[in-house]
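queue> holo job accepted (flavin-adenine dinucleotide)
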Amino acid sequence: GAPRVVVVGAGFAGATVAKYLRLWSQGRVEVTVIEPGSGFVSCPVSNLVLGGSRQIQDISRSYDVLRQHGIQMRQASVTQIDAGKRQLKLDDGTHLGYDKLVLAPGISFDYSHLNAVTGLDLQQHFLHAWKAGAQTVALKQQLQAMPDGGVFALTVPALPYRCPPGPYERACQVAYYLKQHKPRSKVLVLDANPAITSKRALFEKAWAELYPGMIEYQPVSELKQIDPAQRMVRTTFDTFRFDVLNLIPPQTAGRIALDNGLANAEGRWCDVDYVSYESKQAQHIHILGDALDSGLPKSAHIATSEAKVCASAIIDILAGQAPDPAPVFANTCYSYVSADEAMHVANVYRYDEKSREMKPAPGGGVSKQHSAGEAREARSWASNIWHDALG
Ligand code: FAD
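queue> job finished
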């Protein structure tokens, strides 16, 4: 019969690999996608829901088009992988066999270092909104309920984490909302890193020009402890009071990968061969997107690019051929500094035979400064990538 590929996760990487496996094999590969969510919600542009210029519906898409490509969608979670038997167990109790497995589970959150608050479900008490959806809407409600003159504190984990410029874009969007509705309030950025990790000069300029005095930035400020009663946090060097705490915790590859022996020696992320995206830990299992220890920014643009390299490689391997030995792709990350101005950073990455990794290559660059023109390009970028993955 037709070879069967099972994809775990229908985020940016999983949706794209599933669609391109169908398109490029001309329907000769059977594709099943396992995803617990009933629809897709985009992290890119989700910070604008906090700013108020977008609604959650604007960044939500259905999985219908994937079905129209002949992909079987199963609404469930994978709970176990048996790499020897090439079989999955799902949370509805059923088992599913595969010829090739593609894992695209994104990230999980790691609260283990926050030992002080026992008995609290940190994830529910102090929202991350680092997976777009219900948490994005709930964080917006907390922002709306915050008193004027209040402090919205946002913690940034040490790299690597999903979307390096994302927290600083969020600071802009929260400040954009506060400037209009609660102008005596403040955004407090508590960054575990020694400096803004992406587009630093551009963010500093945008903060100074658009939100003077509203965004306080604290580098080398890893979150160590939380006192929920006093609404205080302790960081590496200091303590701070907050009204709303947006706790973006340290991250790992999605638990399903870690719990099934697919993490690398450090135990937090996964390693693959960057020509085929096959795991270094298990045969016939390919891993994509934010779950990888690739050294590249954890972005939707990179996740979808990897997905296409992987789809092509799997089709070649199933046909008994060698995959393209020299993949190359690009990444662009736009950040909105207000409702209608944005800026970007772009890079080209090329497979390097010596290190066997994707390495920065000539090309790309950064904006001179935020502008309305770049916001128009950012809107096109988003509708194009949504269409590429789910259209
Ligand atoms: P995801 O998109 O998270 O998909 C993972 C999927 O796997 C999920 O749907 C999940 O439900 C599913 N899953 C997990 N475990 C299981 C399981 N056991 N069984 C079945 N399914 C499972 N990137 C950009 O390129 N540009 C941007 O402007 C941008 N802005 C961002 C702004 C914010 C605020 C954030 C948080 C991120 C942003 N990103 C941006 C980053 C981008 O969202 C991620 O890099 C991207 O989503 C990674 O894709 P992925 O497929 O690896 O993971």
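queue> The radius of gyration is 21 Å.
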